[in-house]
Each structure stands twice: as C-alpha cells, then as structure tokens.
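Figure 2 data, in text form.
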Amino acid sequence: MPKSKFVINGRKVEVEAEVDTPLLWIIREQLKLTGTKFGCGIAQCGACTVHVEGNAVRSCQTFLEDIAEKNVTTIEGLSTNADHPLQIAWIAEQVPQCGYCQSGQIMQAAALLSSNPRLTRQQIIDGMDGNICRCGTYPRIVRAIERAMKGV
C-alpha cells in the first residue's frame, strides 16, 4: 500500500492508504481526529469541511492524492485553546443545538473570513450556502460570524 505525507494541524504525518482514499477517512479513522464529521459523502452538506492550504474543502470528496505535501487544518487545529474568535462567537450566540454540523460550519466560516474579514451580511449568507444545519440555526450562525468580525 502506498504511503502519503502531508501536514495536519501543524504536524507532519505519513499515512498508508490508497491514493483515492477520501481525506475524511484518513482524518477520522487513521489519525483519530473525530471533530470532522461524515454527513452525506457527496460534498453537499459541509459537515466534513476542513482547510487545505487555507481553503475550505469537503474532505469526503478530497482524496489522499490531492493533499500530498500540503497543509491540512481540521477543527482541532483551528486553535490550540478553543479561543479562535469564531469559536468564542459560536458560544456567545449559542449556535449549536445538536452540534453535528458545527465543526464544518466553523471551518467554512473561518475560510470565508480569512478571504475577506469585512463581509456584508449577504456575503456571509452566500459564503455559508452549502453548509447544511438540520436544526436550522442559520440566523445564529450569521450573528456569530458578524460577532467574530467585530472581534467578539
């Protein structure tokens, strides 16, 4: 079985898996980082969102060959003390209900803010479109992103 090297949350790793293995399974099963969730498996819900080289990607449809020698960040690597402005704002706005989609939501929002720290409300809504929350906490998600932009 081939070996692949990449960096995850600042740590160099080498994994043994076929090159067409979804990154999601490497993260959860081999590296035991379970904050990234399986949702739909077809890149439609956003529960599995992580960053590759700073860009939000759906890890269920990103393959091991796509991340060779690249930097991957999961929710566990977003901040060492859960003190990222989005994480603080998420708590302040009481965003989670069931919580299942939240790591993907936060990772999508972090990439969005990284690309533009002064988003309009509509840009937030458009940028978060595609991350599904079955509990319907969308208004709270938008408020949390707005709060994070203000510095919490």
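Caption note: DSSP finds six helices and five strands in the chain.
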